[in-house]
Design brief:
The chain is α/β, with parallel strands linked by helices and 346 residues long. The chain contains 13 helices and 15 strands. The chain has two domains: 112 residues, Alpha-Beta Complex (Aspartate Aminotransferase, domain 1); 217 residues, Type I PLP-dependent aspartate aminotransferase-like (Major domain) (Aspartate Aminotransferase, domain 2). It is globular and about 60 Å long.
Length: 346
């Protein structure tokens, strides 16, 4: 990582992997580098970690590959997709490459709180007009999460109306919330990744949890050996040290609260509550603030640039998304942001 720039723009948990822990990890042995990977042991470890059977696990090249292949599966089945927006920008990009019929519904904002379009979701599924629902839970870029009651109602309605649910849980481990207990009740794909909750985005390791028959159906769309042996090696080490990562995640969640409170004290910005590893803010002239932050050595993301949908662009106008910085960088980030906002009045 370029230490001259603090990376807060891609939702990377860039400081979760402790240097002292990493220095103890063995490098892959020669045989692992010379042969094709065998995923059996890794799949069993993922199953044990997730609390499911091994045949419910499908290993993928990051969660992006899982998204791509599930979209392909929906296309083959000619399912009309219900897509609540905003969501992870990768969904829009991949859907726009297909001829899948989409029904887009939209979050709204009221007095600093984003609201999920619950009634539209339920009505669409009950009408029989959609065959699949794609959810980002917690949501990226908003940081929101559905209540257990609302989420349960959505899942029940999907089950009763034969709607496939695709739940992206990239950030779920920051909330201790998951849909895993529902996989045997109905058709659900649950997407997970090592990028966020383990801070290992460079490995490109993801996995899908689903009923065994559904997981098998998805795996048939993948090329052999989607994850390298080296990436698998380090992902297995991360699972072996899951307690250390859980402690670091707890530290991040605590720091997220401090970050939220500190940002809320800066006059002129709106700070939105988050259940992920990032926080969304709204500030006038966000593009000018972004340029100032980069000059200060800090990379941040403009919300409006994360979508091509006009309604989402309007909702995310003047927003900035920032990963929760490390304890070492927190004060520096807040100081630079305050300076950038203060300069807007000059």
């Amino acid at each position: 990582m370029d230490n001259s720039l603090i990376p807060l723009d891609l939702n990377e948990s860039y400081w979760l992997l402790d240097s002292d822990l990493y220095d103890t990890w063995p490098v892959p042995d020669r045989e692992l580098l010379a042969t094709y990977p065998d995923y059996a042991e890794f799949r069993s470890e993922l199953a044990e970690y997730s609390g499911v059977a091994a045949d419910s696990i499908c290993i993928t090249d990051g969660s992006d590959q899982a998204i791509e292949k599930i979209i392909e599966l929906c296309s083959r089945k000619k399912l009309r997709v219900l897509l609540p927006l905003p969501t992870f920008s990768g969904y829009e990009i991949m859907f726009n490459r297909t001829d899948i019929d989409q029904l887009r519904i939209y979050y709204t904002e009221d007095r600093g709180v984003f609201h999920y379009p619950l009634e539209e979701t339920l009505a669409s599924m009950r009408s029989g007009s959609v065959g699949a629902l794609f959810l980002c839970q917690p949501n990226n870029p908003l940081g929101t999460i559905l209540s257990a009651e609302d989420y349960g109602l959505i899942l029940d309605t999907a089950r009763d109306n034969n709607v496939l649910v695709v739940t992206d849980e990239a950030y779920a481990e920051f909330t201790d919330s998951s849909t895993v207990s529902r996989i045997m009740d109905q058709p659900i794909f649950i997407l997970r990744t090592f990028s966020k909750s383990f801070g290992l985005a460079g490995l490109r390791v993801g996995y899908v949890i689903a009923q065994p028959t559904i997981a098998t159906e998805l795996s048939k769309l993948l090329l052999p050996w989607p994850v390298s042996g080296t990436s698998m090696h380090y992902a297995q080490l991360a699972l072996q040290h899951r307690k250390s990562f859980a402690e670091r995640r707890s530290q991040l969640v605590t720091l997220r609260s401090k970050f939220f409170e500190t940002l809320s004290m800066i006059k002129g910005i709106v700070v939105y509550a988050s259940t992920a590893n990032f926080i969304l803010i709204r500030v006038p002239h966000a593009d000018v603030v972004e340029q100032h932050m980069r000059k200060s050595g800090i990379k941040i993301a403009l919300g409006e640039k994360k979508t091509s949908d006009p309604r989402v662009k309007s909702l995310l106008s003047s927003t900035i998304r920032l990963s929760v910085p490390s304890p070492m960088h927190l004060e520096e980030v807040v100081r630079a942001l305050k300076e950038a906002v203060d300069n807007l009045d000059k």
